[in-house]
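Checklist before submission:
- one chain only
- standard amino acids only
- sequence pasted in full

Submission:
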Amino acid sequence: MTSLLTITPWPVLSAAILLVLLIAALYLARHTAHQAIHAVTSALARGFRLASHSVAHAEERLAARNREVLLNAGRDAKERMVEREFARIADTTRKDLSNYPDMHRRLSEAIIRIEEDQEKAVEVPPEAPGWAKAVEVIAKLDARNAGADILADIHKSMVKAHAEAMVDYRKASGERHALLRKMMPDWRLIQETLGRVNKSVASVIERSLV
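Returned file contents:
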């Protein structure tokens, strides 16, 4: 660089000459420089376009892959949720219906007791007094003795038989009423058991619809 400034005795003049020559060379080579710059920029543009297309395709593939991963993850999570729900429903069903044999046995026993009590509580009318025997006795009596004494005895027998029949009837009615009252706990047991069964079945149906 220092040797170039010695082309003239004056360095400033040498620098001015060199500047003029450089400007002239650049002016003459402007077309070539423009072509070189255009070629470089075109190459860079093509490279950037290819890079952008590659990035865009990579983005699309990555987005598709992400969607697939998310869908698979969501599907797996949903399947696990459904499996857990089915397991919970199965456990609840087993828990709700585990007492069914005992309830069935208790219902059967209660029904049998009710049937037996109902048979015992059937209304049985009191037996008629022994009119046949009374008539037979009167028929065998002598006509001379068939007077007021016989009628009085018959009346007393009728009154006594009627009183005994009423006592027996009241006793039987009391026993029947006691049997009917005895049936009430069994009816309540059946009602409560059926209510529990209905609640359990409704719970299972409700869980199956969730």
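Reviewer check: The helical segments are 11-28, 30-97, 100-120, 131-140, 148-209.
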